[in-house]
Amino acid sequence: MNQIYANDADFNRSDPRAVRAAIRAGKITGETSGLGSNYVQGNLAILPADLAMDFLRFCQRNPKPCPLVGVSETGDPMLPTLGNDIDIRTDIPSYNVYRNGELTETIPDVNDLWRDDYVAFIIGCSFSFEQALVNEGVPLQHWDRNLTVSMYITDVMTKPSGPFRGGTVVSMRPMTAINAIRSVEITSRFPHTHGSPIHLGDPAQIGINDISKPDWGDAQEIPDNQIPVFWACGVTPQNAIRMAKPEICITHTPGSMLITDLPAHGNV
Amino acid sequence: MNQIYANDADFNRSDPRAVRAAIRAGKITGETSGLGSNYVQGNLAILPADLAMDFLRFCQRNPKPCPLVGVSETGDPMLPTLGNDIDIRTDIPSYNVYRNGELTETIPDVNDLWRDDYVAFIIGCSFSFEQALVNEGVPLQHWDRNLTVSMYITDVMTKPSGPFRGGTVVSMRPMTAINAIRSVEITSRFPHTHGSPIHLGDPAQIGINDISKPDWGDAQEIPDNQIPVFWACGVTPQNAIRMAKPEICITHTPGSMLITDLPAHGNV
């Protein structure tokens, strides 16, 4: 066996095409963290066309929580603007199917569910900017402690569009003041992965009453010499979709994202 | 007569609400340059709903030439995400109506033409970033010589969506190398007004064969110590729409733009 490949999987883990081929072949069914790490990973939402224009407008109006990196043609499962031969029906390891806002199935592909009126939306996620922060010497507590980042619902309301609305969900990273400043500089360069923070300091100012009790993810320590820094989070559109209760919506299973051919730190 | 108001017009020229009220009242029928100058000005395209989703996708795929700053609800002429009481039927000084790709009318309002299936798109323009460059000490030859900026069609193809496609149109500003570098830094902060340049230096590399013959606007001198710097231009979506020959499309008359309540140099 070729020892340059890890985890018994016979593919190049840094090549997005090879990773997607392995996913399509059923060799990867779990999380995509660490795969194709120099390329943009994206969250998925598939909606029927009658809701698609409202959702496009929702993303246009809320670019920090909903940074749209790609949209399929109506009924076409291919995503040529995001990479070579991406078939959104098969190229994500695991899919969640929501009917009228309720999770009904978790399945490895959506070949049997695909319809002529579906539109696939790919939304940037924080993975790329976290890598950029670490590369620039900004430590992330949840990386060092192997936690899921803390996420909170806030009272910073999104701009509504059709049935899509609700509070902005944020992810929180504790850091020193100088690293908070540096992280604003770094993340402002990546509008497609949520951009710069939406708040720093006092959590109560954005409607977070107890920073030790995140709504999603794990709690983090906030040392005396650090402040919490808050970025808009991709759970925001997921929440907005769930509350809109579409007849059907298909998403990635959390952690199992689409790996695109777009360079993570390239021009957007 | 109150001498603090210029040009016989009894309104505050720096207040976008006052300027829009004067436009709506028919007191301003020409260009908006110099009005509400600290606020984002936008280009207008109104399209029927059956083309709107393709056009939204076109803008998502081509953010530098088509930076979308606002989209109306289908059939609703108000633009609450861009400011207070903006009625797109009346709040632009002059409108061009294109039918099947041909200009058929230039009219002061579109009250009589408005339909339940119209969607209004507002696209950022270069006015705001030019002000930012001048404020930062980067001189602009076309400002100093009172010319219209030089614009060229290039062979840098847009990513198509539905009937919308074609080459990217660029505007060109000659500058010294150090000002070219500075202008990349400055304009990269404003993705909603075309962002950073798409090219600098050799015009032939983007399919411009004679820099002295712009396709639109005036020719500019390129002194020996300067290079041409090229930004994606809002004429790109106008061209794409014209070539798509929609049954009807309504735009602003060139130079007569929408003045929004969004601060020109604020967070986007």
Describe the overall structure.
- The structure is a homodimer.
- With about 270 residues, the first copy, chain A, is of the alpha+beta class.
- Chain A has 2 domains: about 15-125 and about 245-265, PSTPO5379-like, CATH 3.40.1640.10; about 125-235, PSTPO5379-like domain (PSTPO5379-like fold).
- Chain A is built from 6 helices and 11 strands.
- Chain A has helices at about 15-25, 50-60, 125-135, 140-145, 175-185, 235-245; strands spanning about 40-50, 70, 95-100, 100-105, 120-125, 150-155, 165-175, 200, 225-230, 250, 260-265.
- In chain A, strands 1, 2, 3, 4, 5, 10 and 11 form a 7-stranded antiparallel β-sheet that branches. In chain A, strands 6-7-9-8 form a 4-stranded antiparallel β-sheet.
- In chain A, a hairpin with a 2-residue loop joins β3 and β4 (about 100-105).
- The longest helix of chain A is centred in the N-terminal third of the chain and has 13 residues, at about 50-60.
- The interface of A and B includes residues 63, 81, 159, 196 and 268 of A.
What descriptive keywords fit this protein?
268 residues, alpha+beta, seven-stranded antiparallel β-sheet, four-stranded antiparallel β-sheet, PSTPO5379-like fold, disordered N terminus, homodimer
Give the overall shape of chain A: globular
> So what's the oligomer here?
homodimer
User: Could you tell me the strand content of chain A as a percent range?
Assistant: 25-35%
**Annotated CATH topology of the largest domain in chain A:** PSTPO5379-like
Number of strand segments of chain A: 11
List segments of chain A where confidence is low: pLDDT < 50 over at least 5 consecutive residues: 1-6
Q: Quick one: biggest sheet of chain A?
A: 7 strands, antiparallel
Most extensive interface between two protein chains, with residue counts: A-B, 23 and 23 residues
Q: Let me know the CATH homologous superfamily of the largest domain in chain A.
A: PSTPO5379-like
Distance between the termini of chain A: 39 Å
Number of helices of chain A: 6
Radius of gyration of chain A: 18 Å
* Helix content percent band of chain A: 10-25%
The ordered string of helix (H) and strand (E) elements of chain A is HEHEEEEHHEEHEEHEE
Regarding CATH, which class of the largest domain in chain A?
Answer: Alpha Beta
- The overall pLDDT of chain A, averaged over residues, is 91
Query: Which class best fits the helix and strand makeup of chain A?
Result: alpha+beta
Total domains of chain A, how many?
Answer: 2
Under the CATH scheme, the architecture of the largest domain in chain A is 3-Layer(aba) Sandwich
